[in-house]
Write a structure and sequence with these properties.
Elements: E1 3-6, H1 12-21, H2 38-43, H3 45-50, E2 55-60, E3 63-71, H4 74-84, H5 86-92, H6 106-114, E4 130-136, H7 145-159, E5 164-170, H8 174-182, E6 186-191, E7 194-200
Parallel strand pairs: 4-5
Antiparallel strand pairs: 1-2, 2-3, 3-4, 5-7, 6-7
Amino acid sequence: MPTIRPACESDRDALYTICLETGDSGEDATGLYADPLILGHVYAGPYLSHAPDYAFVLEDEQGVGGYVIGAPDSRAFEATLEREWWPALRAQYPDPAGIPRAERTPDQRIMAIIHDRTRRIGDVADAYPAHLHIDLLPRMQGGGNGRALMERLFAALRDAGVPGVHLGVGERNVRAQGFYRHLGFRELERQGGGITLGLTL
């Protein structure tokens, strides 16, 4: 049976791999990105470095096959990343601002996120200040593993006095939407092909 434990620095490579292999609305995005690390730099690495108390992994005999990561205060977390995470990545990756959005490669679309200095946490963070990401490889899906991971993070957030948590999911990722709604998340807003869901803790 898979076990859940706190994530640690030695899990970084596994988190980046899982992030990539679930990065296309839950499907394997390996063939979409020239740089296999770029998704992890945005959606996994910052949490392991700057919110380690809210990072948990699911592990079986084959190794780490899933994770849930989050931040209890999204606005404070983004301010930390602006100071301590994004500058090094902006130096590493070129800003694709001069390339029309419709012509950007998948890598360049992620580079644009890295260089976005206008990033703003929406009003949903007033009632749902925490946010999270959860990804599981196919072998870990089902059997209650996702719910168990989420409950582990929810407990940590509640212990910290966090009143609510939100997350984003693609409109076409219907399977994930069903999973989140089954856990009690409700739709908060919908824009740009994505849906923001929230849960009161």
